[in-house]
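Title: Prediction job returns without error message
Component: structure pipeline
Severity: low
Priority: P3
Assignee: unassigned

Description:
Job completed but the reporter wants confirmation the result is attached to the right record. Sequence as submitted:
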Amino acid sequence: MRTRITELFGIEHPIIQGGMHFVGFAEMAAAVSNAGGLGIITGLTQGTPEKLAAEIKRCQDMTDKPFGVNLTFLPSVTPPDYPGLVDAIVQSGVKAVETAGNNPAQWLPTLKEAGIKVIHKCTSVRHSLKAESIGCDAVSVDGFECGGHPGEDDIPNFILLPRAAEELKIPFVASGGMADGRSLVAAMALGAEGMNMGTRFIATKEAPVHENVKQALIEASELDTRLIMRPLRNTERVLNNDAVERLLKKEQELGDKLSFADIAEEVAGVYPKIMKDGDMDAGGWSCGMVAGLIHDVPTCQELMDRIMSEAEEIIAKRLQTFRAA
C-alpha cells in the first residue's frame, strides 16, 4: 500500500507506532519496523542524551529498516536536556522524529538541516495547521478516543479526520481508536494516509512490558478507560484501576481547589511500577478506548500482516459488494 506517509518515511505499510512512555524501547521500535511499519523510540523514557544514543544504537543493531524517535516537549521546572536529546538524534543518523506537546518550532531548523522528517502529534485542526505552517512534514491527528492526552476539545475521529483533510496540505495519519484493518481503511476513507497505533502495540509479544499489562488490555472493554486531570486542563485518558478511582474522588471533592500536588501520588513516577513490575494499581497509565478491540497478543509481524490482509480484503471485496451493478 503506497501513500504519502509510506513515501515520506520509506516504509512498507502506512502504520506508525506511537511513542509510549516506558514502552518505546529498542525492542518495540525494531519489531514494528521489521514488520514494515515505522517503529518509534520514546526519547524522554531514556532520560539523558547518552542513554538515548545508546538505545538508538541498540535499535540499529536490531533492524536495518527506518525507525524514529519521539520527543515530547513539556513545560517543567527542571526540563530535560532537549538540546542534548536533539543532538543525540541528529548524530545517530535517525531520519524520523515524532514531536508532541509544545510547539516544536525552535528545534525544526536543526532537525530539518539533518534531513530528518518531522511528524507532530495534534489533537485539533488548528494545531495541525500550525504544525504545517512551521514546516512539519506530516501530522498525527489524535481523536478524543486516544490514550494519553486527547486535548480539551473532545472531537472524535469521525469528525476530526475529515476536518483535517479539508484543511491540510501535508499528509496526516489517524491516531486514537486504531487497531486493525478496519481502522486503517476507515481512516483512509476519512482522509488520512495511514494510522498511528499506541495501545494496540502494547499487546504484542515484543512489547517490553509486564505480562500483567498485556492481560489487562485483553480483559478491558471499550468502557474501561477514564479521563483524569480534566480540572487541570491536562486531560489524560487512562485505564481504570484503584488508583484512578482514588484520583477521581479527589478531583470531585476538591473541585477548583485541586492542584497537581494533590494527585501526584497517582500519576507521578508510576510508569516503571506498572510497565516493568506489573503493579496494575500503582497509578494512572495511558490507554485508549481501543482496548475494547484487543483480544490477543500476537507478534508485531503477525499483527501487521493481519492488518494489511484485512485492509486489502475490505477494499477489494467487501466494499465492492456495495457498488450498484
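Comment from assignee: result matches the submitted record. The longest strand covers residues 67-73.
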